[in-house]
Amino acid sequence: MARAVSVSLQKGGVGKTTVAINLADALAARGNDVLLVDLDQQGNATEGVGRKDLYETDGPHVGDVLTEDDPVDVHEIIHDRGVFDLLPAHVDLDDIEDRIRNSTFGILWVRRRIVEPLLGDDYDYIVIDSPPSLGPLSDASLIGAGNLIVPLLMSEPSVSGFERMVEQQVRPIRKEVDLDILAIVPNDLSGNNEEKRIITDLESSPFEQYLPSFARSDGFGESPGPGLRHRIAFSRAWRDGETLREYDPDNDMLDRLDQLARVVENGDTDA
Ligand SMILES: Nc1ncnc2c1ncn2[C@@H]1O[C@H](COP(=O)(O)OP(=O)(O)OP(=O)(O)O)[C@@H](O)[C@H]1O
Ligand SMILES: [Mg+2]
Q1: Domains of the chain
Q2: Is the pTM of this model over 0.85?
Q3: What are the pLDDT digits (tens) for 191-207?
Q4: Residue 188 Cα, ligand 1 centroid: separation in angstroms?
């Protein structure tokens, strides 16, 4: 079943872009047709897959699709990026966000102009990298995808950011349209007691169902431990414009990214 997912959390630097890029790559490595969409004005996903050149393009870009007047066809702004395709961000995304805010149906544009025309026809999976701020672009990303993946640092501010997001964004959206939380992805773990405490707390909370099996506390006794671990290769791959798999094909986190891809394929953490 085709599925779009938004990688989102209203907190900076938790690993949204890292997870979005490498989830798109993992889904593609499993033989799916995949589109990575960069909806963050920072353009980190675009840069991290080696296409920074597209970020300031004079050619048609995401702003020509997310507009009221005579939008261009979404196919015109998609670029081939090896095993997956890329819909890049653009330096003008902040202005585009204002346009979404000021248009009656702007909030539906990601869904109507990007996801609906492509999903199931051109692509099996669409993975959207979302901005770190609460706002129309972030809402449009969640409404457009209908599925959510939340990367989470194992720190109190990160967890309370997630709880706030559920209250202020997920709940209100769910009153109007379907929005499923597919997974919480504990990220950047290095093996301290705080990480253990937070994962254990999550396991005894209503969010327990969203923890994939590779992210559970029973992994603490084993190597390399639960979650996506701190691996310098993630940032080096980004710097070189490569996915983790391209940069370091033997990295031990690739197996976890494959498990996350299976969660997305199955639409459930009990994959
Ligand atoms: N598991 C990890 N191990 C090591 N470094 C990581 C890991 N995950 C993310 N990073 C690094 O942490 C930084 C922040 O990650 P990333 O850009 O993915 O976060 P983000 O949530 O997208 O940030 P923003 O809110 O600014 O969009 C990057 O330099 C990235 O390379
Ligand atoms: Mg990011």
Answers
A1: 3-265 (3.40.50.300)
A2: yes
A3: 999 999 999 999 999 99
A4: 8
